[in-house]
Amino acid sequence: MVFPIIMIAVCLLMGGGVFLYTKLSEKKKAVAKQAADNTAQITANEFINVKDIRGKFLYTRDGLALCYLKILPISIDLFSKSEKKQIIRQLTANLSSVQYPFKLIAVSRPVDISPLLSELSAELTESGEMKQKELLKQEILEMGGYALSGEVVERQFYLILWDKAGENAEHELLQRLKYLSGYFGDVGIQAEILEQQGIVRLCNLVNNPSYVHLENADFDAAIPVLENAGEK
After folding, report:
1. Residue 38, by phi and psi: left (phi above 0), alpha (psi -120 to 50) or beta?
2. CA-CA distance, 214 to 217, in Å (whole number)?
3. Which of 32, 45, 72, 155 could pair with 190 in a Cys bridge, judged by C-beta atoms 3.0 to 4.6 Å apart?
4. Do the beta carbons of residue 177 and residue 191 sit within 8 Å?
5. Is 74 within 8 Å of 188 (Cβ atoms)?
6. Helix, strand, or coil here: 209?
């Protein structure tokens, strides 16, 4: 008589345990689903820590103000070895006086060949020779293919300055950017301070996958060697 009662009690306990486990599992799944839904509702600005972009500044959610200096490219192949050393010495001396932190970033983006296409189209319209028209059409098609494929890319370089957002922070950052721009200008390298639209484009280049160009990440092991700039 005692054994059936024990078996019934054990079955009830097991059934209660299974029921409790099922309820707890459902509750955990509901909490996880709600957390996932909340994560999905996070805006892009919250995800990349951007609060606002106004004028020449990007403001972060943790109270920082950032501004950007775009370094325009030059072709070093046009300089002699002595001219390159002179640029290195001058730029090193200029930047050695910088007593505040800054960050250098390099991003790749497809080359804008729309001016070239416009020029070719204008020549095609003005041309009166059939052979020249045919060559121009082929060139336009070729350039258009490069533009659509995104295979022709250029490296763009930016300097980033930041400080705690405050009453005089923006003015101080702009002064620092102007000095940096002057340092590069002394050696013939042009630079420009990014405005609002330029900052948005840079954010897209860095954070938007649709703007990212896939690059070859292969590299060879090598030991970098710095040349002595003081050698004649």
Report:
1. alpha
2. 9
3. 72
4. no
5. yes
6. helix
Q: Do the Cβ atoms of 66 and 200 come closer than 8 Å? A: no
Q: How many residues does the chain have?
A: 232
- DSSP element (H, E) containing 227: none
In this structure, which topology does domain 63-111+153-211 adopt according to CATH? Alpha-Beta Plaits (3.30.70)
Domain assignments of the chain as residue spans, ordered by start: 63-111+153-211, 113-151
Q: For residues 29 and 25, what is the distance between their CA atoms, to the nearest angstrom?
A: 6
Q: Is the pLDDT of residue 215 over 50?
A: no
Closest CA to 202 of 76, 70, 87: 70
> Are 222 and 124 within 8 A, CB to CB?
no
Residues 16-66 pLDDT 10s: 666 566 766 777 776 666 665 555 555 555 666 788 888 888 888 888 899
Structure tokens at 169: 């922070």
